[in-house]
């Protein structure tokens, strides 16, 4: 995967993409690194100085739609750049990425969000580029929409079943991890299945994707709490102890020690 796709993934999605497919100029890398530091306005100006290549225009568009404070002018310019990239070529990295960001603009950045347009673009990415990074990310976004679109009147159990069906084919480690977290939290939020929530939390914890410490700490606690509620005391003990060992200064330590003291002794599974 090219450097720019990896950098966008890390900076904007909290995901780690694959290795770079080739060398990129130092200035291009520097521009993406500015974006990775959330200096979106500076990165947009940096890309503007890099000329008219497809990567430079794609990078500028990404930074414009993420720049704060958000302005209609920046969003409009970013949209125009993405549309031009799609017209020129729809099947290379900038072209595929442009469709993803057009969907995100429709979903979040328009004066009036257009979820139908966002869904259509996400579905196109899944159908045409399902194994591509942006196709995988689009599948995750469709799962999120299935769960939390306020206009969806289906019962929560049906929405969650649809989301889980969308997430099943995911194979990108970071996106798969985030899907498991999404599904686990939905099971708990909608009071559906603590057992299924635990299964998803365990899958997220055991995956190959790196997890930030703040997420890892919360994940250990969520596994511990779900396991304790289900009577899986050995599993609960294991993750409470891992939490205390890896995050000894966390303010929740006293609560975790109390949880441990209240667990019956048994052999961990």
SSE string: HHHHHHHHHHHHHH
Overall helicity? over 70%
If you compute it from the alpha carbons, what radius of gyration comes out, rounded to the nearest whole angstrom?
21 Å
In what range is the share of β-strand residues?
Answer: under 5%
Strand tally is: 0
Q: Give the CA-CA distance, first to last residue.
A: 39 Å
Average pLDDT for all residues: 90
Count of helical regions? 14
Give a short account of the largest sheet. none
* Structural class assignment: mainly alpha
Q: Uncertain runs with pLDDT below 50, 5 residues or more?
A: 1-23
Write down the overall geometry: globular
Structural commentary:
This protein is an all-alpha fold. It has a domain at 1-113. 71% of the residues lie in helices and 0% in strands. The chain contains 14 helices and no strands. It has helices at 3-13, 26-36, 40-48, 54-66, 72-88, 93-109, 115-129, 133-148, 156-167, 173-189, 194-206, 213-229, 233-246, 253-261. Helix 9 runs antiparallel to helix 10 (173-189) and helix 10 runs antiparallel to helix 11 (194-206). The two termini are 39 Å apart. The model is unreliable at 1-23 (pLDDT under 50).
């Amino acid at each position: 995967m090219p450097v720019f796709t990896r950098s966008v993934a890390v900076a904007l999605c909290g995901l780690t993409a694959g290795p770079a497919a080739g060398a990129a100029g130092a200035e291009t890398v520097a521009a993406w690194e500015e974006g990775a530091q959330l200096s979106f306005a500076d990165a947009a100006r940096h890309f503007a100085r890099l000329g008219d290549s497809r990567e430079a225009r794609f990078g500028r568009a990404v930074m414009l739609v993420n720049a704060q404070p958000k302005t209609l002018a920046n969003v409009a310019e970013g949209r125009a750049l993405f549309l031009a990239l799609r017209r020129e070529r729809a099947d290379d990295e900038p072209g595929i990425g442009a469709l993803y960001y057009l969907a995100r603009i429709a979903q979040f950045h328009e004066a009036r969000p257009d979820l139908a347009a966002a869904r259509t673009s996400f579905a196109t990415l899944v159908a045409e580029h399902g194994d591509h990074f942006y196709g995988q990310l689009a599948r995750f976004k469709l799962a999120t929409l299935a769960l939390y679109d306020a206009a969806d009147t289906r019962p929560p159990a049906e929405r969650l079943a649809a989301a889980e069906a969308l997430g099943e084919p995911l194979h990108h480690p970071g996106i798969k991890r985030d899907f498991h977290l999404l599904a686990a939290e939905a099971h708990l939020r909608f009071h559906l299945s603590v057992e299924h929530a635990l299964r998803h939390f365990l899958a997220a914890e055991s995956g190959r994707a790196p997890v930030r410490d703040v997420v890892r700490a919360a994940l250990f606690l969520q596994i511990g709490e779900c396991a304790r509620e289900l009577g899986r005391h050995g599993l609960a003990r294991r993750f409470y102890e891992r939490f205390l060992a890896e995050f000894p200064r966390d303010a929740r330590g006293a609560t975790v020690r109390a949880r441990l003291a209240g667990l019956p002794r048994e052999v961990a599974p």
